[in-house]
Amino acid sequence: GQNIDQPTEMTATEGAIVQINCTYQTSGFNGLFWYQQHAGEAPTFLSYNVLDGLEEKGRFSSFLSRSKGYSYLLLKELQMKDSASYLCAPRGGGFKTIFGAGTRLFVKA
Amino acid sequence: EAGVAQSPRYKIIEKRQSVAFWCNPISGHATLYWYQQILGQGPKLLIQFQNNGVVDDSQLPKDRFSAERLKGVDSTLKIQPAKLEDSAVYLCASSSHRVQRGEPTDTQYFGPGTRLTVL
User: Fold this and answer.
1) Distance (Å, whole) CA B64 – CA A10
2) In B, which residues are within 8 Å of A97 by CB distance?
């Protein structure tokens, strides 16, 4: 079967670093996306991993371990505007992307 | 470049009524998706089109939901009749096999969504 597991909510302080974990099981694997979704808005693309390792993009980094079915999104120098839901979305067989329930991140001053 | 357009943005109907949503994808995007997102959950794929053909509609409740993309460009999603549990945001997304904006192929770009309330 297919399954995506990520924490429901996290809280962090402005300026800090937060890591959002995601474990997944898919039939086949063709990369993993992370999307950001602010309340009441549509998801927007953040990052993509297809090979093991870390992809860095400014304040955001994403890591993938295919053998462990594990990814994380790392947000540095947190800002209030980073308060949003973060969706882990592995792409399985047939290049079908499946979205997790998302992790709601609250950034406090 | 214009993004994915959707209308209406909000819709309130009573149960057993019908409703239709419209989506216009990014120009040149062959793949179009309709998702249902219930509050507090991730988007759930209802149907995926490649040009005007259906690629995946395994999670579409076909007794009440229908979708079409007749000319391979814009698309409509219809619910008839609506139930209380259909209250959700309906998101349309599109993607391309070509690399765009330096992002991976098949990155999905979402429209603003239609928030449906069924009373």
Assistant:
1) 37
2) 106, 108
- Give the torsion sign (CA, A103, A107, B4, B7): positive
Tokens of A91: 């792409």
> Is B106 part of the contact surface with chain A (CB cutoff 8 Å)?
yes
Mean pLDDT of chain B: 93
Contacts of B103 in chain A (CB under 8 A): 45, 48
Pick from B79, B64, B67: nearest CA to B11: B79
Place of tokens 């998702």: B35
CA nearest neighbour of B5 among B89, B112, B114, B107: B112
The tens digit of pLDDT for each residue in B53-110 reads 999 999 999 999 999 998 889 999 999 999 999 999 999 999 998 877 778 888 999 9
- Would you call the peptide bond into A90 cis, given omega within 30 degrees of 0 as the criterion? no
Burial of A13 (0-12, 13-18, 19+ CB in 10 A): exposed
